[in-house]
Design goal:
mainly alpha; two-stranded antiparallel sheet; 10% strand; globular; 4 strands; 61% helix; 9 helices
């Protein structure tokens, strides 16, 4: 996958992005903290990276300078691409699936099945609503001219929402789980550009939306869990499986409660 120079460039950009995000996560928070729901801490500094990423993408919709960068990358893609690699259709879900897989093999994360599923579901709802709304409003043409729903990248948003989910659940077990998740997410964004489906600004904004969606989901969780999911039932079995209906790829989940 890394034979041509273009792919190495794209992957380098997103490895750098993943490293920047990870570095931001591990710094000591020096900004003001606001207590939410008595036991949830809202850290303003954690909004910086996703806000900057989203801002970059939004500015890129009209900025001639950023459009020039987008066009330059597209030209390189068109000149060097040999064949499309569709691994990004699956890699976007890999970090989230890893969380459930690690629990199955006995490596426990921060939350139990019910709690983490609520968090992930909330994140995906926020992310999906944000992505679909922006796509319908901005109507940016895709690099390959196939549609006018390029901004932002939904695949990348899903991947980074999943990566942040993996980071939050397992950062206290090993930081390498989180690093790996972000590298997979970065690779997903890189392949969206490589496959000529998105501009760089689409992917960067998608990354910011994904990260922010999961952060918000964790901050909202205590309230949601207390006021919406009050059931004392325990999960006895679960089934998680991908689905494909000819046009869309996703993940289905069945939960059996005692």
């Amino acid at each position: 996958y890394f034979k041509n120079k273009l792919m190495r460039k794209i992957v380098f950009i997103f490895i750098f992005l993943a490293n920047a995000i990870y570095g931001q996560q591990t710094k000591i928070d020096t900004l003001k903290k606001i207590t939410v729901n008595n036991n949830q801490v809202f850290k303003l500094k954690k909004l910086i990276i996703p806000t900057v990423l989203i801002g970059y993408g939004v500015i890129g919709i009209e900025s001639d300078g950023l459009k020039f960068i987008n066009s330059g990358i597209k030209e390189e893609v068109n000149e060097n691409i040999d064949q499309k690699i569709t691994i990004d259709d699956f890699s976007q879900y890999a970090p989230a699936i890893t969380v459930y897989g690690l629990n199955v093999v006995g490596i426990k994360g921060k939350h139990n099945f019910k709690e983490r599923t609520i968090i992930l579901g909330t994140s995906y709802l926020i992310m999906s609503a944000s992505v679909l709304s922006l796509k319908s409003i901005t109507k940016v043409e895709r690099p390959d001219g196939s549609a006018f729903n390029s901004f932002p990248s939904g695949h990348t948003a899903t991947a980074f929402a999943s990566a942040e989910f993996l980071w939050q659940e397992y950062k206290d077990v090993s930081i390498w789980y989180g690093i790996t998740g972000y590298l997979v997410a970065a690779g997903t964004g890189a392949f969206r550009i490589y496959n000529d489906k998105h501009w760089l600004t689409d992917v960067v904004a998608g990354a910011g939306i994904g990260i922010l969606s999961t952060k918000v989901a964790y901050w909202m969780f205590p309230y949601i869990n207390k006021h919406i999911f009050k059931s004392n039932k325990n999960v006895s079995s679960t089934i998680i499986a991908p689905f494909y209906n000819g046009k869309q790829i996703g993940i289905g989940m069945a939960i059996n409660l005692k």
